[in-house]
């Protein structure tokens, strides 16, 4: 048996978990790079029986799965993975497993981006490192309005922190009710009011056909010219070109982004260079504690499957 561990960017998969029971039964190959071309993915994975994927870094679509006749198991990290075609896997008799996880690390990164964007932390840190001193005037969050787009497991936690900072917190989503908003201690507003009132708008929706492109040019035009947009959910929820246009024209003041339409973000992409953008490389879930859960449970699931397959 051969096991592939994909997209281990930090080269930590084998140190974050006990893989000995897998290594006793199979050869493990770790890939630290990322392949974006589906044909290259198929060529790489063709000899493997088991593939371990880290979240949605490498999509396993129907066309990819159907060209991997050796594939018998997909071990995904996290409780669900929208980039795996589960139906195609089931049709082929491929076992798909998942793991547990935490939302706290994404909540923390959301606030890291909000604070870094509001207080121009990156610019000021670069200035100090280069021998300079103060370069900008940051903004205080207390007394301003936090708009939360999506008040689920992550959004509700983000809202609590906003209240602790003394912010007025309001929320809207397609499924949110006034009663649920009241239970969370958050003001319920219309979609238009969410965008027009927020000094900081933070996005916490699951990507679906209904949420794809939900934040477009119309919504961005409603925002204050001093407002900040933060997205740690999924890139395609925001119309990327509309966001770039809004940032370039200063229709909004800035953005803190951890997710993008194409990941890794292409070299030379405008979101890498705009001076009003604080960008991180989809690290909302990249934290030691959650990595140990992801890789630890994936290793156990693979070992269990290999034992049954003997």
Structure description:
The protein is of the alpha/beta class and 310 residues long. The chain is 36% helix and 15% strand. The protein contains 13 helices and twelve strands. The strands form two sheets. A seven-stranded parallel β-sheet has the order 8-7-6-9-10-11-12, sandwiched between helices. The longest helix is centred in the last third of the chain and has 22 residues.
Shape: globular
Distance between the termini: 10 Å
Helix content: 25-40%
Helical/strand content category = alpha/beta
Arithmetic mean pLDDT? 97
SSE pattern? EHEHEHEHEHHEHEHEHEHEHEHEH
Number of helices: 13
Largest sheet: 7 strands, parallel
Number of strands: 12
Q: Mind telling me the C-alpha Rg?
A: 21 Å
Report the uncertain regions. Answer: none
Beta-strand fraction estimate: 5-15%
Strand order of the largest sheet: 8-7-6-9-10-11-12
């Amino acid at each position: 048996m051969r096991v592939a561990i994909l997209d281990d960017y930090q080269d930590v998969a084998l140190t974050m978990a006990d893989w000995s029971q897998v290594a006793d039964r199979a050869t493990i190959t770790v890939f630290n790079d990322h392949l974006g071309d589906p044909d290259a993915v198929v060529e790489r994975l063709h000899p493997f029986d088991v593939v371990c994927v880290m979240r949605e870094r490498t999509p396993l679509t129907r066309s990819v799965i159907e060209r991997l006749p050796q594939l018998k198991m997909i071990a995904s990290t996290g409780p669900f993975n929208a980039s795996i075609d589960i139906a195609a896997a089931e049709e082929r008799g491929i076992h798909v497993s998942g793991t547990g996880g935490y939302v706290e690390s994404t909540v923390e990164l959301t606030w890291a981006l909000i604070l870094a964007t509001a207080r121009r932390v990156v610019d000021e840190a670069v200035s100090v490192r280069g021998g300079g001193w103060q370069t900008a005037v940051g903004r205080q969050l207390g007394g301003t309005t936090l708009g939360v787009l999506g008040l689920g497991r992550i959004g509700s936690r983000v809202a609590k922190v906003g209240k602790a900072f003394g912010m007025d917190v309001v929320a809207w989503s397609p499924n949110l009710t006034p009663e649920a908003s009241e239970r969370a201690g958050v003001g319920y507003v219309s979609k238009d009011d969410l965008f027009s009132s927020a000094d900081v708008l933070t996005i916490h929706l699951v990507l679906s056909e209904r949420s794809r492109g939900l934040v477009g040019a119309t919504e961005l035009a409603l925002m204050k010219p001093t407002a900040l947009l933060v997205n740690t959910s999924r890139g395609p929820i925001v119309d990327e070109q509309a966001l770039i246009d809004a940032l370039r024209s200063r229709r909004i003041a800035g953005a803190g982004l951890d997710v993008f339409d194409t990941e890794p973000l292409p070299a030379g992409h405008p979101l890498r260079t705009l001076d009003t953008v604080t960008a991180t490389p989809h690290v909302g879930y990249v934290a030691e504690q959650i990595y140990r859960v992801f890789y630890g449970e994936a290793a156990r699931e693979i070992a269990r499957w290999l034992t049954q397959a003997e």
